[in-house]
Amino acid sequence: MSVRAGSTADAELTIFQKGQRGRRAFQPPALDVPLRPLEELIPARLRRSVPARLPEVTEPELVRHYVRLSRRNFDLDSGFYPLGSCTMKHNPRLHERVAALPGHARLHPLTDPARAQGALELMWGLERALAELAGLPHVSLQPSAGSHGELAGVLLTRAYHADRGERRTKVLTPDTAHGTNPATVTMSGYEVVKVATDERGGVDVDDLRAKADGDVACLMLTNPNTLGLFDANIEEIARIVHGVGGVLYYDGANLNAVMGISRPGDMGFDIVHFNLHKSFTQPHGGGGPGSGPIAVSEAIEPYLPRPVLVRHGGADGNGSAVEFDLDYDRPKSIGRLRGFQGNYGCFVRSYAYICSLGAAGLRDVSETAVLNANYLLARLRSLGVCELLPPAYERLCMHEFVLSGAPMKQELGIRTLDLAKRLLDHGYHPPTVYFPLLVEEALLIEPTETETKETLDEFAAAIAEILVEAREDPELARTAPHTTPVRRLDEAGAARRPVLRQAL
Amino acid sequence: MTRYTSVTDSDREAMLAQIGVASVEELFAEIPPSLRLGRPLELPVGLGEAEVYEHMRALAARNSSAEETICFLGAGMYDNYVPAVVDMLLGRSEFLTPYTPYQPEISQGGLQVMFEYQTAICELTGMDVSNASVYEGPSALAAAGYLAKLTNARSRFVVSRGVHPHARETLGTLSAGYGTSVEEVGLRDGVTDPDAWAAALDEDVSAVFLSQPNFLGAVEDLEPLVAAARAQGALVVLSADPIALGILEAPGRLGVDVCVGEGQTLGNRLDFGGPSFGFFAAREEHLRRMPGRIAGETRDLDGRRGFVLTLQTREQHIRREKATSNICTAQALNALAGVVYLSWLGREGFVELAELLARRTAYAREQLAAIDGVSVLHAQPVVREFAVSLGLSDLASVRRVLTRCAGERVEAGYPLGSDYPEHPDGLLVAISERRSRGDIDRLADVLRRALAAEHAAAATGGASA
Known about the structure:
The structure holds 2 protein chains of 2 kinds. Chain A is an alpha/beta fold.
């Protein structure tokens, strides 16, 4: 593991505290045009009056600073990262290589489509693959991340109803939903109505029936849900929502469980978003970039964000050349969600991934993800871990599962947070903690399909060991981590007295 | 089994035994048979790494990139040089592969990068506070609209027609949700029309939106425009080109409330439009309504300096329907490229680059305006982009001219006619430090000949040549 405490005095300094006046890493190209006085070009009153105090460092200083900083990060390439709901699967390096090909990386987004046919064909191929995986016919690649896809979806819902002369006011979300769901609803001008969860961890269908009325624009749902459980009532749920004229929105954060096995479109969903940075292995970059394409039904298609990628020719067998174009003439479109065509660099990586795996491989991904999750749960159970950390629901799980740390807290006096921090000392990234909200002391574990059985065994053993150790000496966990570059940080203090930039 | 999945047949047997089921199929028992796909996905079979590489290379070869043309396209994204240190650092596993830093003890590298990035953006813009990045430029401007909506209960946005067309459209898409209307104010002589601007402002205006330089490359005289908006109590949102801020006044000194912009030009590749990053900086009074992640400095139990994500009570995972934004994943890696690039440029280089661009752009503008029939579209000051009228009758003829130029491996610029029908023969030309005087002379030569060919074809009625 790369993240260990070491000599850190230097690492605590920011790049702004290093270097000296006059040092530089940049040498500008020679001035090859007339040296015109700036006054002639831009009047003094419009020009900058105070300099931007950017760092003044040499290239060696710059490299060393950021390489040292990098060593203060834990990363997926150096260890297991079972962060629930985030699908931290291996990022194949092939993807970095092909995304860096100049034909992709140095292609200007406003290049005439006639001279960007390779890019548009790639996007078309990705769109078709996502449509097939979703079981819905039309795709827009434009949204920049999952939450951006959600925003697109709810705005599409609004446009769909408005086009029918309807003004609906409410959007239903389960109480287990990702926080992005209710936040999106508010941003889109709707009221959030929470739907309860039943004793098996699915949508409480009676509660849904009671709340589904003519004011409901949409239900946003994740299936499998954030508890890692497949909601077997989904057909009934769809009937209820469609019965009152509502739209069904699928949060695709958990798609990694069902690729090639079950499709949101077949479940009755009208709009789906994908997280290319989850199921389709775009590296997460420490908080992005991501990409959040959406797939929609025929009924929603007229409202898709502009421009829409279209294909001409080729299909009718008359030998005409296939040509791709961007269609802006979309009178019912909700409009753009961002500039240009979306995060193309992410499309390149995810398309390469789909090409690598193919139909059978994608199904194997989901089968293995579910097998790994169930195996890890069974392994934890066999080690006695689940006596202190019982599963929130005693069922087979899908690609992830939730444990509750409530008994552990009661019996050992350590909280889920303490367990998570102690896992750092064992070289693991901890699972997601304190989500979903309705499980006390929740621990959401998603191993993904790229991990081996040996890794899962070692991780299970580490959790068992921490529990044994905590019975002897709970302080070790309560004060963990002990081997990281810094110990627990004062987060409350940071929020109370925000210091958000280097004082210069 | 694929090359990215882990389970062998014997692994599977042992794992199923531990779970206590007979088959993988049983793990999916909860999915009703009616919802099973029941057939293979209609997708091609999987390929080996070398085959995938060749396929991706063949697709790339069908794109006309800035690697093989002389590219004068800009209009929001620019062919600036990306230094090798950026590629090297972004390729490091420790930056490339972690998730959002939810565990600060093992994420000090990424969190400190965010803190440094915020510092750099504050220095560039002269604003008090910056977040750790949003998706990209146009959605950053729209996000500022939502901040204004949360700040005051006013009903209208007023946006200059000089704001990037994609940003104006994105603002309209998002504000349709929460119900703020958007009104556009036109340009006069290439810049925001001050009279129309003043006439559009009243106390119903929630926020105004300007761009510096504007989409036509013109440097706006912001002070009177900002003052007019502030007099009505409207928030002032400015979209700024960060490279141009090497020479233009810092927005923070002009009374701007929120300064946003597209960060691609700071060390990020073109990537056909993304991923890049949007920056979002504001006056301190708006801090608690800002969207997105913010890193803050703090201390650990031993008193060591450290960094955490802070002010999270603004955010969706804590505040849910009361959050100031729904954004979760943003553009951390691209923002890293941004701060590495700015550190590479450095305090002096940041100014030198902008001055070089201004001088080369002035030269290019003169060379193009000297072509028969071509004139400047406006005479305002410019930094790295300018607009000309080609002296043609419509957009279609502009496109033919551009296709002719492309045939000589020159991407001459972005035709303005579809976004600005009032300028059917307008062409927006961007200069980066990669475009030498020789490249500019070549552009002038190729464009001159392409225009001559177009005029000749038109004269003989063969305009479709």
